[in-house]
Amino acid sequence: MTIDLGPVSKTLEAEVRTWVRRNGTVVWLDLDNHYSGFVDRLAARRDAGELPYEVRAFRGSHLALILAPEEVSVGVDRLPLLLHLPGFNEETVRETPLYELYVAGSRYRKALDTLITEAAAGQVTPEQIAAFRTQPETTLEGADVWLAALLDESSNELVTLLRSLQPTAVLDDLLGGGFIAGQLGQPEAESALWEQIRVWTGWPSTWRETALPSVASRARLSAEEVAFAAAAWALCVEYVHDLKRPPVSAVLAGAIDLPPSLTETCRTLATHLRARHPGFYQRCADETEALLAEEVETAKAEDLGRIDTFRFEEDRVLKAAFAALQSSDWMRALEWADLRIGAKSKQPSFWVRDDLARTSAWQLVLAAAQLGQAIAQAGTLGAVGDLVTAISAYTERGAAVDQTHRHLEQRRVALLYPQLPEFESLRSCLDRLRGHWRSWADAWARDFNARCRAHGFLPEAGLQQRHLFDEQVRPLTGESGTTAYFLIDAFRYEMADELYRQLVDTPATTVTLKPCLAELPTCTEVGMNLLAPVATRGRVSPVLSTEGGGGRVLGFTRGEFRVTDPATRQRAIHDRVGGGTCPWLTLDEVVTRDPVSLKRAIAQARLVVVHSQEIDDAGEKGVGPAVFEHVMQKLRAGWRLLRDAGVRRFVLTADHGFLLLDPQAAAVQTHGRRIDPGRRHVFSPAAADHPGEVRVALAELGYEGVAGHLMFPESTALFDTGRPRRGFAHGGNSLQERVIPVLTLVHRAAAGGSAQRYVVWGERREGVAGMHCVAVRIEAAVQCELDFGSPRELELALRVPEAADVQVELCQTRGPARLVGGGVRAQVGAPFELFFRLSGSSDARVLIELYHPGAAADVESGMPEARFAVAAAGMSGTPSLRDPAGTPDVWLERLPEGGVRQLFAHLAQHGVVTESEAASMLGGQRGLRRFSLEFESFAVKVPFAVRIDLIGGVKRYVRD
Fold it and tell me: What does DSSP assign to residue 222?
């Protein structure tokens, strides 16, 4: 026989059941004996087989419980069990024989007032709950009768319908003009709706007048006005319960003590509106914010919580984040940024996610705070200690700072533009971080140079660059198959560390990263030539030139010939490793060759050398931060393509690193005549010491057959050469320049792959804040059978195929995609928007290509038909445009045949087409009118801008 429970008792039983399921044995201390009758009903239900747990109760006899069946005995596994102890609390139960049972279980208590509120919340109004709770001698049985009666008497057809729906569904109905919205003309229905919303959200009886002061007296409100009142209250509740202090606005007083279930309902409504009705949410939030003038005026960033319910919250916190950066409070700035766009945010703040300018600002704050924190964690190097411990300190602590600094500079190039909120404040913060990094780098450089003075400038043999080939590369070539040796100009240690983290989890692969110390001076002529086998018994013979005053290294002598350039390096390497061939390929050649050609090129080789100058070239041109990540993509692609071609072993290393300085604020020091020094070093025949410099004799560097000395700034300063300062520099004796990577990959199995093919689609969208926009989607071309291993996410990049000198800056994404390094990680099948900038030596209009840079899958690139404008960036030279199809008129083929194509060809050649000429080409006035309507769609496909002039009443199409 079923034992019925009232509505309050049902709520209590559901909670008790959850407690018992989670804790096993639950001991219920019921000091005021409110629940004995309820527990007796539970025991009857257990006897009838309606409960999944045992029920035992103290009813005056301790002995009866102690001698009860073994399920209540301590230490026995026959659980779960509810043990009810009326009249006891934590203190009095200690004095009874039941204490052992109490200790063995999980304590449970429930105040009757709290139970009534929780059970009735969301079913009747707060005023009805408050009125019942004031009655004397309230009992659980009385509460059951009260709530059941209220629910019965208020039931009608519409109320029954509303109770069956979720509050979010009712808001959707009101905003979408559904059935409930159509009932608002009927007073009874409208009253029922207002009442039910009050039940769900707990708004005070005066809220209608507060939220809608201008329309509250009207007999009938629109569906959107009712939705606004409900949404505004939900936003107020979310704000109050996210706030870290009590609210100051009287409007919010009713939101403070709501039952948890009503608070959660309001939070759910707010979240739902942000996701499903963003336009309505924005209007509602802004209008509700106007009701909270006291809050807006007094709120501090520290008061606000994790959710930016209102616009003023995000704005207040962003300004506070700038202030935190200025005061070196990195943790606070990092926490605020993380909550809005970073790892701690499940999704971006509503006020940030669709505002690209604010997103950019927060990304810069995040990157800046990460740099400040990295510097604090790295600490100092210390002048005491040897070179080995200095190298270890840099690889363990210092390289992370330089990596974070590079990331910030890359973000700065892509995202810092005048349309950002508080642009000047943000730029000031970033400038200060540059100075903060420079102070840290100067201190480490001085300490490192002090160690070099004390212990010598050359480390132990195992860490010397001149031994790298024979100790790290040559042993790998003794195994069967081909080894790849990547010589990457200016591939800094922290870059290799980033690449290592991306590759370390490659299946069936051993990946190691070790440091090595580049030879001095840290320039290409030294480092690249020493990456070939030129050392004899640990010593090398440099070839010096004295042209230009101070002299420079041209290369090194090895046996009977000099190693000074790629050809002689190739010869030296081939002589040492043997094999039928020793191919020397550029990184571009590797990533652009077809698979058959690549396999053929390495077929007879023990060792293939891959040479890359992109990092150094970009740095010297002043566009390094915009290019660095693209080179990292190409390195991953080159590795993968060579692995697919059969290479099992890889060594990636560098000739030297670099310093990334602020060209406007880089310290400069003089050294004799301006023509004597390079940017970071100078050769001198005399052993003279100068303030702020460090000196080493060439003989101490293991250089034979030459005399003289090398001198360097002891900090990150540049020598005054009389030439414009650049932000990219090398040649000196800082750890950033000298610590180079030796990244080794040994694959134990051949590369596998998926037969699935993908295609990328792109379409031009309206740009924002000086950024271009393209809508992108990756789709599976043809679904293959048994394709279980296909990726659900792919990497994309963007390039300009017809103009190699145009720089691409990826700025933001909107939708299910994210920027990672210099590319985009996008979900297959999920459309998103990509925002970017194009810069070059002069204005142009170019095609873009969306491609997969990593060679991890078979992906067909996408090329939108529209062209995008290139902004002149003041670089020297003229644009080098080439059509990707190889002929200058291929762009015409993208236009409709006939008059349209003829008109634009005439514009390209002559620059002007009058309206009468256009009508003639297009077949008359009807064709001209049709062309005028579609003009914009044609104009975006041509490589020049076209404007329409009206002179003397004559309309003309003019090429800019």
Answer: -
